[in-house]
Automatic annotation (TrEMBL):
Family: Belongs to the enoyl-CoA hydratase/isomerase family.
SUPFAM superfamilies from the UniProt entry: ClpP/crotonase
EC number(s) per entry: 4.2.1.17
Keywords in alphabetical order: Lyase
Keyword Transit peptide found: no
Lyase recorded as keyword: yes
InterPro entries xref list: ClpP/crotonase-like_dom_sf, Enoyl-CoA_hyd/isom_CS, Enoyl-CoA_hydra/iso, Enoyl-CoA_hydra_C
Protein name: enoyl-CoA hydratase
Taxonomic lineage from the root: Bacteria, Bacillati, Actinomycetota, Actinomycetes, Micrococcales
Catalytic activity: a (3S)-3-hydroxyacyl-CoA = a (2E)-enoyl-CoA + H2O; a 4-saturated-(3S)-3-hydroxyacyl-CoA = a (3E)-enoyl-CoA + H2O
Uppermost EC category: lyase
A single GO BP: fatty acid beta-oxidation
UniProt-recorded Gene Ontology molecular function terms: enoyl-CoA hydratase activity
Organism: Agromyces kandeliae
Length: 266
């Protein structure tokens, strides 16, 4: 359900020095199933082999409603704690591939960037967004916690206080709020302006010394606080623990059955 037949869920478009990674699963609001995550990682691997020509990557969601509405809740619904840890690690592998990619990666958000979708955007170097975008970590509404890096990268992006408010409430913030919090680097009126703005930034980057840009990215990624690989292990353990709870089964079942959850606190 929710898959768009006859089309791969992720494709690469090339235009000069710019590569665009399109997540194309609009019927499920581009939710990140294991297949989609694997295809995003493969796309960055493929682009790495031609990294000399690629000076910047745009990541965008198809369909006009969502960047990515999260990890695929259906794929999570039956996992054991060990499988939950594996699911989190797959998301972290995608984020690591983006952070290790030598050229800047711009998440172009037009619509929902929720849960794993916000975490994917946070793994990119910068986030550009249209006015009609929404950002949040709604995992606790499902009995889950962020699993693709949100507990690590969201506090770095917006500060600990707002990060905790967003993660504890599951609340969504709009593009203007996200921009003033420093989560979004730049806001655009519509999708065309968003993509043109991202291309213009990459063209500006491409005019600079390539070696210096690549070095700056490496140092920025490495210097961003606690070593990411160590910090994300705390998250993997907590995400796996969520799969031991009744609340997670109830929260995920309620989403799939389109009803309000009844949490027991266990
Ligand atoms: N996983 C699987 N399917 C999803 C999905 C997700 N994360 N988000 C949306 N979909 C599907 C819906 O099930 C629906 O499919 P059907 O048409 O087959 O029923 C379709 O996409 C359209 O969604 P809605 O009908 O719900 O659209 P809406 O406009 O009423 O609501 C929304 C939009 C508010 C984004 C809502 O879809 C929503 O709340 N989605 C879930 C958001 C979420 O909880 N994300 C976190 C997931 S857990 C996670 O990401 C863990 C982690 O950190 C790794």
């Amino acid at each position: 359900p929710g898959t768009d037949e006859h089309r791969p869920p992720v494709r690469i478009e090339r235009d000069g020095v710019v590569a665009t990674v399109v997540i194309d699963r609009p019927k499920a609001l581009n939710a990140l199933s294991p297949d989609v995550l694997g295809a995003i990682a493969d796309a960055f691997d493929a682009l790495r082999s031609e990294a000399d020509a690629v000076r910047g990557v745009i990541v965008v969601g198809e369909g006009g409603r969502a960047f990515v509405a999260g990890a695929d809740i259906r794929s999570l619904s039956t996992l054991t704690p060990d499988e939950g840890a594996e699911a989190a690690r797959l998301g972290h592998r995608v984020a690591a591939a983006i952070e290790a990619f030598p050229a800047p990666v711009i998440a172009c958000v037009d619509g929902f960037a929720l849960g794993g979708g916000l975490e994917l955007a946070l793994a990119c170097d910068l986030i550009y967004a249209t006015e009609s975008s929404w950002f949040g970590q709604p995992e606790v509404r499902l009995g889950l916690i962020p699993g693709f890096g949100g507990t690590v990268r969201l506090p770095r992006a917006v500060g600990l206080s707002l990060a905790k408010e967003l993660i504890f409430t599951g609340r969504r913030i709009d593009a203007a709020t996200a921009e003033s919090a420093g989560l979004v680097a730049r806001r655009f009126g519509d999708r065309d302006a968003l993509l043109a703005g991202a291309r213009a930034t990459i063209d500006e980057v491409a005019a600079n010394a390539w070696t210096a840009v690549a070095l700056a990215k490496r140092v920025l990624v490495d210097a961003a606080g606690t070593p990411t690989a160590a910090a994300t292990e705390f998250e993997v353990a907590g995400f796996a623990d969520a799969f031991r709870t009744d609340d997670m089964r109830e929260g995920v079942a309620a989403f799939i059955e389109k009803r309000e959850p009844e949490f027991s606190g266990r």
